[in-house]
Fold this protein.
Amino acid sequence: MAAPQPPDLQGLLRDVSRALAERHVGFMLVGGQAVLLHGAPRLTDDIDITLGIGPDQAPLVDTMARSIGLEPLPEDPLRFAQDTFVYPARHRPSGFRVDFIFSTTEYERQAIDRAVLVDLAGTRIPFASAEDLIIHKLFAGRARDWDDAVSVVRRQGERLDWTYIEHWSRAFAEVPGREDLPAQVERLRHDAR
């Protein structure tokens, strides 16, 4: 199974993957790139990467990003990463935005371990599993995220591990403002039929 990618994106994903691997940083692609793999095709010009490190490692990400031609978007990217858990950058030659998302939770580490390896341009790149992508999308809670989650359920069908999705939706229901996640999972199962 491979996600269709334009050649310049494939090269960028390969470069990012290799640079992170050289620094022994676990990661997975999430967001629109993972939707292309597990759900319905859609346009996206950004790359969202969840990292298996916390924002205290932002200097390592800053050095790595600059080494492969990524330009940080904030004036002070290290402070921005500390404050937001995100290091946003742009690959000027292709125009793609790359957001490195720092993680500190057990769930995110487990999701990285469960990532699906996809061969792109001769490099095995970890994408979030379909289940973890659904969890990310439901947690984000925007209309576009709901549509993406529905497309993943429709495409993956019976292959999905609903027990896993339900477990994490209940765990994340303890986060203030996200108490509705278990109900959203049930609605998703119903709406995506």
The chain is about 50% helix and 20% strand. The radius of gyration is 16 Å. The longest strand covers residues 46-51.
